[in-house]
Amino acid sequence: MNQTHNQNMGAGHITNKGYITGFVLALLLTIISFGLVMTHIVSRQFAVIGLFVAAVAQMLVHLHYFLHLDRSSAQKWNVLALAFTALLLFIFVAGTVWVLYTLNSRMM
Questions:
Q1: Per-position pLDDT tens, the chain of length 108
Q2: pLDDT at 76
Q3: Which of 1, 15, 51, 56 is the most exposed place for a label (fewest CB within 10 A)?
Q4: Please, are residues 47 and 36 in contact by the beta-carbon 8 Å criterion?
Q5: Using CA atoms, how far apart are residues 81 and 87, in angstroms rounded to an integer?
Q6: pTM higher than 0.85
Q7: What is residue 71's DSSP assignment?
Q8: Distance (Å, whole) CA 15 – CA 81
Q9: How many Å separate Cα 10 from the centre of its chain?
Q10: Interatomic CA distance for residues 11 and 3, integer angstroms
Q11: What stretches of 39-75 show up as alpha helix (H) in DSSP?
């Protein structure tokens, strides 16, 4: 019953192997991020680019392995809701930065 309930809710086939794979990938990406910053082996620009790439990869790992979002038709509404939330966050953050920038330029 639990597996049928998961599939009806759009979660798909959930296994321990998927969770372990996601955990290991997330752990590796976290270690890579800390390694880029703590070792100072690479330049600052490369470290920032590496951190950005690792952050995006980690978000994708979490979405796929833990939130079970993929390109299947059952996940269409979940992906659409996530995209709409990302759009709203972008509008809020960009709008806030824009307002603060214009207020700062008017005050100086």
A1: 455 555 555 555 678 999 999 999 999 999 999 999 999 999 999 999 999 999 999 999 998 999 888 878 888 888 888 899 999 999 999 999 999 999 988 887
A2: 85
A3: 1
A4: yes
A5: 10
A6: no
A7: S
A8: 24
A9: 20
A10: 9
A11: 44-61
Closest alpha carbon to 46 in 36, 38, 31, 59: 36
C-alpha 65/C-alpha 62 separation (Å) is 5
Query: Do 59 and 86 contact (CB within 8 A), yes or no?
Result: no
Closest CA to 32 of 50, 48, 20: 50
d(CA 87, CA 89): 5
Q: How far is the first Cα of the chain from the last one, in angstroms, to the nearest whole number? A: 64
CA atoms within 13 A on the CB side of 27: 6
Backbone phi and psi for residue 13, each to the nearest 5 degrees, phi listed first: -85, 115
DSSP 43: -
Task: Give the pair of three-digit tokens for residue 22.
Answer: 């996601």
